[in-house]
Amino acid sequence: MVILDVLTMCRSLRLGYRWTRVLAIIAMLSIQSLFAPPVAAQPSPTWPARPIRLICPYPGGPVELSSRLIAQKLQESFGQPVIVENRPGAGGVIAADAVAKAAPDGYTLLMGAVATHAINPALMPNLPYDALRDFRALALVVQVPNVLVVHPGLPVQSVRELIALAKAQPGRLDFASGSTGSTGHLAGELFKQMTGTYLVHIPYRGAAPAVADLLAGRVQLMFDNQASALPNIQSGKVRALAVTTMQRSDALPELPTLDASGLKGVDLTTWWGVMAPANTPNDIAQRVATSVQTALMVPEVRERLRNLGAQASSIRSPEAFASFVASEKTLYAQLVKRAGATPD
Amino acid sequence: MDASLISNLALGFGVAFEWVNLLYCLIGVILGTLIGVLPGIGPVATIAMLLPITFTLSPVAALIMLAGIYYGAQYGGSTSAILVNLPGESSSVVTCLDGYQMARQGRAGPALFTAAVGSFFAGCLATLVVAMFAPPLAEVALKFGPAEYFSLMVLGLVAAVVLAHGSLVKAIAMVILGLLLGLIGTDVNSGVLRFAFGVSELADGIGFVTVAMGVFGTAEIVTNLEMKDEREVFTGKVTHLWPTKEDFKRIWKPILRGTVLGSALGILPGGGALLASFGAYTLEKKISKYGHEFGKGAIEGVAAPEAANNAGAQTSFIPLLTLGIPSNAVMALMIGAMMIQGIAPGPQVMNEKPQLFWGMIASMWIGNAMLVILNLPLIGMWIKLLTVPYRILFPSILLFMSIGVFSLSNQPFDVLLMMMMGLLGYVFVKLECEAAPLMLGFILGPLMEENLRRAMLLSRGDPIVFLTKPISGTFLVLSVLLIVILALPSLRKKREEAFQE
Predict the structure, then answer these.
(1) Which domains does chain A have, with CATH numbers?
(2) First-last CA distance in chain B
(3) ipTM greater than 0.90, yes or no?
(4) Shortest distance, CA B111 to any CA of chain A (angstroms)
């Protein structure tokens, strides 16, 4: 079909025979590479024989920064270029879908995240990929806690006081989030459910304008990413009440957890890690996973990731990461269902 | 206060004049100019790709270079806008209007010169503003909430109607079409997809660059090709490279006004900088005695918006450096770059890392000076580019545009969309509809909707907040006044007369 199109195109462009043939061959080759059956999962000692692409769904932020950081180290250990390719759009669906449908040959990797693999499956009924079946989780790279912060003008010093205030004035308090369906939004919905309070969700386009309105006191609280909240907490422009993880945060050790403040079992983080298409051969998957872990151990990398807010994590093996992804998916499915937060 | 300002600036220049920092500043502005000139390849992609390199630099050098790329790109962007009617980013859309017309009249030299000098002047003054007033201005930025943004944009949109050269009805129609195009994508409040027709590439809406390159660049190429060989004729009559004395007399006031307006709007993190060049152009058109020449190659129409967008680019560092709030995608990347260096952007940067803060501010001034020195000699070269036969020039432009648009999100769909926008743009040319109001509607529409609904959410559905908040109320009153002025019969007559000239 396509070859015919190329031929007609050449004719209509009045290209000579030679060019027509060249174009036809190019078209044929490209079709072959497009429709070639995925190479069977057999050990490939030659891998990597060509550049590897690490697809990043969220350019311009910590996900891209850490992708580039990891890519640099992978490149050194594989001896082949590892290229970070940004494929933004549709909340990460475009990038994840591209990798889900890519050849499982180890040359296409994904920086999968909580949104692509846990939240989107819960929010989007027509997701073109299956977060668990289509991927092979290799290595968790970053886990960042969220922090419940309030405007300093709000007369509460603890989570308990906040709950009391919210109960005394139902529907008066607002909570901001970077977008509908973000971890910040869903943390707020979980908070509402567990405490039986009513807070109004104010979604923004990205966390930055949300923080601006929080600093100005137009909204009173927010579940913000710890890394971006930290300077404002330290300068007193916002007051931190609790961290959303079971363990206390490395960066804010004096801050209590939500779990200890009466919201039993709350453990929400923003995370991302390296994944591959489902049928990627074992040996390649193992090599990528090991190399990422090695990179994460390099003091320089660790330091830079900590600057982005990353917590030390106990999830080190591909198996642990895979079961973590599965449990996160279940968690958000329940959360979204109970909150009724699907777009409708 | 003054003494500390001088000592701070001295500290800053001390840092910025270290040879390493000078070198990275130079690399930054050269890279910035290049990517600015190449249509579509914007500072966001460039800065992202360079980030790993900056890890090895000192934080000051890294930020100086990244900042240099950013304002260097603003600079270079005007070059392609003037020469081939290609706005690489939002700020250069307005430069296209009169800059390209000047180029067609063989006055590309003065237009490029005006853009360079206007940018330089604005950059210097805005740097001073950043140095002197950064902390208090950050507080002003916080005064702008959803209600204030909404009303500011209403004012901007109303004022934009005067952007149109011809029929008022057509201008309004184009604004509305732009608003509609802007609605495509995910609704911020509910997360529902609108007008995406199941195409996941449309889930985040259509990109500004894609639309701008289509309706300006591609449409211009189609129109030119229709004219066969005429395009080559007008490039032959380049009379002089430098502006005349008369030109200088005409541009200094617009540059000054553009700088003031741009500095003020650049501070607002929620899209204020977008308004700067549009606002400056509109203002000039209203108050200039050459108002009737606007759109036909008025040099003021290049001077004012170029000054405004450069001033806005500098002052948009204020919310970043003082509040840690990025005002656009480039600033968000800068935050990432700072964080990965272990510097949390926010109010404490100024006190804890004075070398970084003041060094960066001082480097902006140095970078602006470098840009002028770099760009003035280049003007001659750019003009030579116009003498390249069009049959060779246009495929190259198309190629660069396609690469640029593709590189935005590595999506072939965007290239297709740009071509469709080009066809649409050609239809507009045939119907004598201006594309500038469309772009303004496209930019402001989604922002207005978002802020309107957010303000209403915050007020629990009470629309009176738009009037009771002083800043917001003032903007709305001004908008009404503008409409009244526009509608008054005596004035309308004058307006129509002006059009007939």
Answers:
(1) 2-26 (no CATH), 52-143+272-339 (3.40.190.150), 145-261 (3.40.190.10)
(2) 52
(3) no
(4) 34
